[in-house]
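Narrative of activities, Objective 1.

The group set out to show that a structural description can be obtained from nothing but a protein's sequence at a throughput compatible with the screening campaign. Below is one input-output pair from the validation batch, recorded exactly as produced.
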Amino acid sequence: MGHGGNVIDELMTDHREVEELFGKIEALPSGDKNRKVYADQVTMELVRHSVAEEAYLYPAVREHLVNGNTMADREIEDHSKAEQIMKDLESCEADDPEFERLIGMLMTEIRSHVADEEENLFPQLRVACPAEALDDLGDKVRMAKKVAPTRPHPSAPDTPPANKMLAPGAGLVDRVRDALTGRGKLD
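Output recorded for this entry:
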């Protein structure tokens, strides 16, 4: 979290980190308790990433791209699907058969979303948006990820201004809960 660079570089680094965590999950045998730990880490990263994209990236997409509203709406819909899967996954342990189904669904959904962003949205944004604006968005996204929630909140608003106002409070509560429970930490 907080890698530096413009918004596209920042978000692509996040994508690589999530894919690395997916690889760790896939490398472990079914039922291994560390699969749940890595799934929690994936969820924490994805929720922060999504909140930052919804607060800053997608408004820029709407502003700078000709078909920006359609693209942003589709990306937010992808986030909603993934967030519901993560919410369902939260209550499953690694040895629950439902865990396998849900983590598979999450990986498929996220990999498709990442491919769409990296192959379509990011190249268009890089052309349409001034470099200084992309750098400024990178700073804003890094700041948003620092205070964003770490747990899925499917019913929370996903567009400004409500999402920008509510995310820091939910983020604080989530980080306290994570610290108290040890969520996302390997033994």
